[in-house]
Design goal:
Blueprint lengths: L4 H10 L1 H14 L2 H5 L9 H20 L9 H20 L19 H7 L3 H11 L1 H12 L4 H8 L4 H23 L1
Length: 187
């Protein structure tokens, strides 16, 4: 089944499990992009292309959630442009002497929220390490609330907490630990 742009926009902006399902569907619907671009980006191996595609889907999700995508093109066209930029970035990283220029799709500057700053930084591996160090409960609460857009009530139900207040309290504690980890690593 092919899903429409309107479906993806509405479901991703809805957050929670609806967003999670629609991201999976979007990912699968346009995954052929990786295979179709093997020849175009010959210097990238399959893992690089997958990395670029994953990054592109994440960037598209963020732009849909933040209202950056205006609908001037189709989601496929927009995703293709982001994917191309991600591939070019990977090629540049592999070949620092590259001088070609490409206009990047602008991304909205993030909120002052700690998790948004961390997620939008180039230090994704460090962010993953921090989340792993926080433990599974903190990792799930932070990802569910900040990445997937689940409400505190939904998170409480998903992880077996008594109520939304318990989730909010734990989330605050997790954010304090994360803030401390980031402070310690920058000094």
């Amino acid at each position: 089944m092919q899903y429409t742009d309107e479906y993806f926009i509405a479901e991703i902006q809805a957050g929670g499990s609806r967003q999670e399902q629609s991201i999976r569907r979007l990912y699968e619907q346009y995954f052929s992009m990786v295979r179709q671009n093997r020849q175009k980006y010959r210097t990238l191996d399959q893992d690089d292309l997958l990395t670029a595609y994953n990054s592109a889907v994440i960037a598209l999700r963020r732009q849909l959630v933040n209202g950056v995508f205006r609908g001037d093109s189709t989601i496929l066209t927009y995703l293709t442009r982001i994917f191309s930029n991600k591939c070019i970035d990977l090629i540049r990283q592999k070949n620092t002497h590259s001088t070609e220029s490409l206009e990047l799709v602008p991304e909205k500057a993030g909120d002052d929220d700690l998790l948004h700053r961390l997620a939008q930084s180039d230090q994704v591996k460090q962010a993953i390490r921090y989340l792993q160090e926080l433990g599974e409960v903190c990792k799930q609460i932070l990802l569910d609330s900040e990445y997937w857009g689940y409400s505190s009530e939904e998170i409480a139900e998903r992880i077996g907490f008594a109520n939304a207040g318990s989730v909010n309290s734990k989330k605050y504690s997790c954010l304090q630990k994360l803030r401390q980890m980031m402070t310690n690593s920058s000094s």
